[in-house]
Structures are given as C-alpha cells and as structure tokens.
Amino acid sequence: xxxxxxxxxxxxxxxxxxITAKAIGLELELKEVNMPAGEHLKPDFIKINPQHxxxxxxxxxGFTVWDSHAxxxxxxxxxxxxxxxxxxxxGVVFSRLFKIADPIIQNKKKQLSQKDIDSINEIYSxxxxxxxxxxxxxxxxxxxxxxxxxxSVSSFNVLLPIDGHKYPRTxxxxxxxxxxxxxxxxxxxxxxxxxxxxxxxxx
Length: 203
Known about the structure:
Glutathione_S-Trfase_N; Glutathione-S-Trfase_C-like; Thioredoxin-like_sf; glutathione transferase activity
C-alpha cells in the first residue's frame, strides 16, 4: 500500500514532496483536498492532522507527518536508496512566498508592491550567493535542498521572472532543475498556480 499524500496541486510544499517522491522512485496515493469547501476542517481530516495543514502524509503503517520539509526528510530517510542527501532549510523562502502570494490568491491584492518585488529579488540574490562555485544548492550533485527550493522558486518566477543578467547562476540553476526528470512532478501544480495568479493580477 502506497503512502497517502493529502494535497492541493498548486501548493509549493506539495510540489516539493511530489518532486522528492519522483526522485527516489516512490509511488504515492494522492488525495486532493478541497480547501475552499473546508474539507481540511472536517473532523475526519482533523483526526489525521490536528493542525489541518496541507500537505499531510499518512504512511502505510499509519504514521502521519505534515509540513513539506518534515515530509521530504522523512521520505528520504525511509525510502531513498541512499540517505546521504543534504537538506537545506529554507523556511524563509516558503514563508515569504506565502506572504506575497496568499493575498493575491485571496483577492486581497491585485498588484505586486515594490516591497514584494524587492523581497523576491532578495531571494534571488540569496540563491545567487549560495550557488557561487557550485551547480546545485547544497552540493555538486542535486539534493533534497534543490527539490524543496524549486517548488517555491518556480512560484516566485511566475510572480517575477528571474533576470538572467542580474542572477546568472540562479537562472542556470533553475534551467538545470527544469531539465531534471523529477521536475515533471512540479509541472501540473505550477501551471495551475500560474493560471490562478495571472488571472488575479492586474497587468
């Protein structure tokens, strides 16, 4: 029996988990949660995850874990053939994305503010520094740090495309990530995210 992932495709955390699962060859049973309808607040789901957050993973032995970073670490630890992958905590990246994107999705904001633009560019600058002298975020080979970051960075790229002249290493890293076979797991969700955001932003 495959582990069950309660998910919403556009969610960056969900996409990070899907990319990681694909990379380690793990099949997941996907259960999409209708959050606008409040399915995550129903007693059956709260029994699984009292914090009623997405993504949530239920393993085949009933063990439950939520928060995408925790899920990624758990999956690699339990299911990957090798456990020598580095996990780079990027809570600031995901939280910043949520702070910028959520008001747009909730129809509370129609345009990126200059503060939003500066904030996204700061993330790109941060990545540019991390990528100095290396192809991938945490090592010379791809690790779960890249899988975790690409879901958020691809979302930022929808909001404010990466400027290859200002951030050449970040732009190249993004292209490298897109060429990975496991990036396929990100495509559906990022297309949905892009469609939602672009329909809500005033051009």
